[in-house]
């Protein structure tokens, strides 16, 4: 069973990919909806949250963890790995690799939360494999509440205007590839694509899902334990369920439970 977590809905971008790539593996998802957003928090708060999220998932019989959150992947992944005896996969390296593979003109845009952009995590990961690449980053914190509040339909004017404003500099840079470095952002990828025509979008949740699959396959860790999905949140269920269903394209009715994350 794979444990997946994020601050809220964003990690579902990884879950949707996992469902496709490994339909026979059990998945347990935790969305920390009571404490979203993560992307504005201090490092010490993020370390605390990340450890609690992992501790909750470890109360289930998981054999790998997918940190489906750009912010936690940028700040806390080393810490999580240091306390974990099972593999912990984040979104940064897989996305950087996919972007370097995709770019033709070596100009790569990166968008993420404020914390992610300030950490420089994606820049470092890209430069490590492509020192000649030019990287332009922009923090897009408003995308997170827009997604959490369901402003995700293709023709949503408010989200489109926000995207136009946020993406102007990256557009002007001529980047041909854009990493959606916060897992919430692929949920509005139709809108982002309409603002950035001709630009290859890298879905960080999906890239991390592909990466954990490759790792588990190579390490003989795939269990084929049934393909069941269970969802946990730290605040009320119905809002999460509704937007999750809009995004996943299928019902998760009755599969979501609420926990008190402060107990972990
Ligand atoms: N989805 C998360 C990320 O990838 C966190 C967004 C937030 O809670 O601010 O960064």
Describe the model.
- By secondary structure, the chain is of the alpha/beta class.
- It has twelve helices and ten strands.
- The strands form two sheets. It has a six-stranded parallel sheet with strand order 4-3-1-2-9-10, with helices on both faces. Strands 6-5-7-8 form a four-stranded parallel sheet, with helices on both faces.
- Helix 1 crosses helix 11 and helix 5 packs across helix 7.
- The protein is globular, with a radius of gyration of 17 Å.
- The mean pLDDT is 96.
- The structure holds D-glutamic acid (DGL).
- D-glutamic acid binds next to helix 3.
- The site of D-glutamic acid has 17 residues, from helix 3.
Question: How are the elements arranged and paired?
Answer:
Blueprint: E1 2-6, H1 12-21, E2 27-31, H2 43-58, E3 64-67, H3 70-75, H4 77-82, E4 88-89, H5 92-102, E5 107-112, H6 114-119, H7 121-129, E6 134-139, H8 143-148, H9 157-173, E7 177-180, H10 189-195, E8 200-203, H11 204-218, E9 229-233, H12 237-248, E10 256-258
Parallel strand pairs: 1-2, 1-3, 2-9, 3-4, 5-6, 5-7, 7-8, 9-10
Helix pairs in contact: 1-11, 5-7, 5-11, 9-10
The chain binds D-glutamic acid (DGL).
D-glutamic acid (DGL) is lined by residues 6-7, 10, 36-39, 69-71, 112-113, 116, 144, 182-184.
Bound molecules: D-glutamic acid
- What percent of the residues sit in helical stretches (DSSP H or I)? 40-55%
What's the quaternary structure here? single chain
Number of helices: 12
Structural class: alpha/beta
Distance between the termini: 20 Å
Question: Which whole number gives the mean pLDDT?
Answer: 96
Beta strand count: 10
Main beta-sheet annotation: 6 strands, parallel
Biggest β-sheet: strands ordered side by side in the sheet: 4-3-1-2-9-10
* Percent strand: 15-25%
Overall geometric form:
globular
CA-based gyration radius: 17 Å
Name the helix and strand elements from N-terminus to C-terminus, one letter apiece.
Answer: EHEHEHHEHEHHEHHEHEHEHE
Stretches where pLDDT falls below 50 for ≥5 residues? Answer: none
């Amino acid at each position: 069973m794979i444990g997946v977590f994020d601050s809220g809905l964003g990690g579902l971008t990884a879950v949707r990919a996992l469902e496709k790539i490994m339909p026979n593996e059990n998945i347990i998802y935790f969305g920390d909806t009571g404490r979203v957003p993560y992307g504005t928090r201090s490092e010490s708060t993020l370390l605390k949250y990340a450890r609690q999220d992992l501790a909750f998932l470890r109360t289930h019989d998981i054999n790998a963890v997918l940190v489906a959150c750009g912010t936690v992947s940028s700040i806390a992944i080393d810490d999580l790995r240091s306390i974990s005896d099972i593999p912990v996969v984040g979104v940064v390296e897989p996305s950087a690799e996919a972007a370097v593979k995709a770019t033709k003109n070596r100009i790569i845009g990166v968008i993420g939360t404020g914390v992610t952009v300030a950490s420089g995590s994606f820049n470092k990961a890209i430069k490590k494999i492509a020192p000649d690449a030019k990287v332009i980053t922009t923090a897009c914190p408003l995308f997170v509440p827009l997604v959490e509040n369901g402003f995700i339909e293709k023709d949503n004017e408010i989200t489109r205007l926000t995207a136009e404003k946020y993406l102007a500099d990256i557009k002007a840079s001529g980047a041909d590839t854009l990493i959606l470095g916060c897992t919430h952002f692929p949920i509005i990828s139709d809108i982002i694509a309409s603002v950035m025509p001709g630009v290859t979008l890298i879905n960080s949740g999906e890239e991390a899902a592909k990466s954990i699959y490759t790792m588990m396959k190579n390490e003989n860790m795939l269990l084929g334990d049934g393909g069941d999905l269970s969802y946990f949140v730290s605040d009320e269920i119905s809002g999460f369920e509704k937007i999750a269903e809009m995004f996943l394209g299928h019902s998760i009715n009755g599969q979501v439970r609420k926990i008190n994350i402060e107990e972990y």
